[in-house]
Amino acid sequence: MFALIYEYIYKWGGDTYSYFRQSSALGDVLFTYPSAYFKHLFGFVTRGNIGLIPSNIGYYPHFSDPQMYAIHRFLSPFTILGLKNYYLIGIVLNFFLFLINWKFFSFVSKFFPDRKKLIAIAILFVPSVLFWSSGLNKDAFTFSFALLFIVGFHNLFFKFRINFWNVFYLIFSAYIVLALKPYILYSLLISSVIWLGFSYLQRVKNRILRVFV
Question: Would you say the pTM of this structure is higher than 0.85?
Answer without folding.
Answer: yes
